[in-house]
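Q: For a teaching handout, I want to show students what a protein-ligand complex looks like in token form. Below are the inputs, and the small molecule is magnesium ion. Please produce the holo structure.
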Amino acid sequence: MISIKRENEIEYMRQAGKIAYDLLMSLKDVIKPGITTKDIDDFAYDFIVSRGAKPAFLNYEGFPASACVSLNDMVVHGIPNKNTKLKNGDIVTVDTGAIVHGYYSDTAYTYIVGEVDKKTAALVENTRKALYKGLSVIKEGVVLNEVCKAIESVARENGYGVFDVLTGHGVGTDLHEDPYIPNLANHESEGIILKSGMTLAIEPMFSLGTKEVWLMPDEWGIVTRDGSNTAHFEHTILVTKDGYEILTGEWKMAKEKDGYIELEGKVLEVIPGGDFKVQLDNGHIVIARVSGKMRLNMIRIYPGDTVLMEVPICDLTHGRIIYRK
Ligand code: MG
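A: Here is the structure, written as tokens, with magnesium ion included.
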């Protein structure tokens, strides 16, 4: 049965969602070559606990960590460990959640470590787009299968593998509630009509190759059978009358065009060499250059200025200042 949440329950889920969102955004500054998957999990545990919440994944059905940390060809459920170090060219998915007053959040994000090949960068970007495409059709009265179809369409356009055994799900007082939400069109989702108050975890997972997976000997990690890279993005959302509310934060805060997003930030300082340190609204710090057009127009930037930035989706640590407010 698909539960409908009351406002006080949704508020707890918002709080749980905000903690998981802040955690994933903070990890952008933590994830770099040389750190271990265990370092990521330690950061996740400390972050969630320091906010007064409980890690949703820790001991869930025996899972031994606060975050699933899955590298490259691992789709989901990677057990963090001290021996696996991130290196340049990896992609790493962190899937995590928090519990506030018994209510769960569930969210995942695939990070690029250093520089990756173009195909992998596109996979990451398109999987994230598929999540937002799936969300874009959500509102009360819509058949769930429309969401599944929207997600699948992005995989089909790009020739990606979609795992039929791994799905999104309802979320609330348990991490996994009804219904299953496959990333493919399916008959079961045809019979489910979305209602406001439903809380769902939507989570496209695509691969550059196969849709077939293996279970690792640790009986948690799931990897692609052909070793191809995989990406995974997930939000916990609330269905509303007119659309949806993301309970795990909006990663993309402004409009998006051709692989770039536009974000507003505040200039913190000038870095020797002419770059600037800019803090975005979500607290994330980006190193930025001034656009050629602004240079030509002799527009100077000073600490304290509010600026509009263009940040490439593939590398959220560097950007370009295109407008001074
Ligand atoms: Mg999930």
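A: Two things your students might notice: The domain at 7-246 is CATH 3.90.230.10 (Creatine Amidinohydrolase). The longest strand covers residues 260-271.
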